């Protein structure tokens, strides 16, 4: 990939994280002319990237004073958010700084919603979407359904049995790799093709029985399952039997738990759909859950 002084400069927030790293990898496979700038709040990470020959900048989303230097010369931003309620003011102030810096395109990794979501975390994302749209900067919003990688976390295998905490409800899923390749395409092709576009990404619509069946096929071992309720999960957390990921603060975690309740009681039946967006944009089939399981068996607590 050639890089010139007039080529777009794409800033990737969270470039060392799950989706950010995948977006960087996908961008590096694109044939368009642009430069990639990696962003991190960890100065040691920025130094490591520099040592590896990458373009990288330090940015602290809780300190807007770091924004002008980080955004100098940037024309496009991949905006993703962290796992705290701070995502709201962080995104707002970054968008303000992007306007001042002359950024012309923001691609936001949002949520799979209809613009009127009531779950706090989903509502926060929709507020950010609205603020970006009102900023005057051209935008595209990606709306991924649940990541496949959340299945081992929230449908864990305990004592050889896959556990669900949304009963037998179905919901949509998508691979992070597919999200990243869509993001890379949109960032690389830019606002000329993708301004004012919403892209809803949902490849498979499955419940716990479907997931256990697929995992059984992949492992050639019968995987049984139990369909619990959110109330069962809340009790397990209270007793210490189930531990939430440590990188989620309480407000964010409570919102996530509320999301499970909304799926279970039917308020989020709108998530139980699939779309053709990945294949339409990338010109290849989306990654199936079965194929994802084959590549990621190590994430499951299996004894095979």
TrEMBL record:
Pfam families associated with the record: NmrA
InterPro entries reported in the protein's UniProt record: Ergot_Alk_Oxidoreductase (IPR051604), NAD(P)-bd_dom_sf (IPR036291), NmrA-like (IPR008030)
Any coiled-coil regions, as ranges: none
Domain NmrA-like positions: 9-237
Record-linked PANTHER family: PRESTALK A DIFFERENTIATION PROTEIN A (PTHR43162:SF1), PTHR43162
Record protein name field: Uncharacterized conserved protein YbjT, contains NAD(P)-binding and DUF2867 domains
Organism, as annotated: Pedobacter caeni
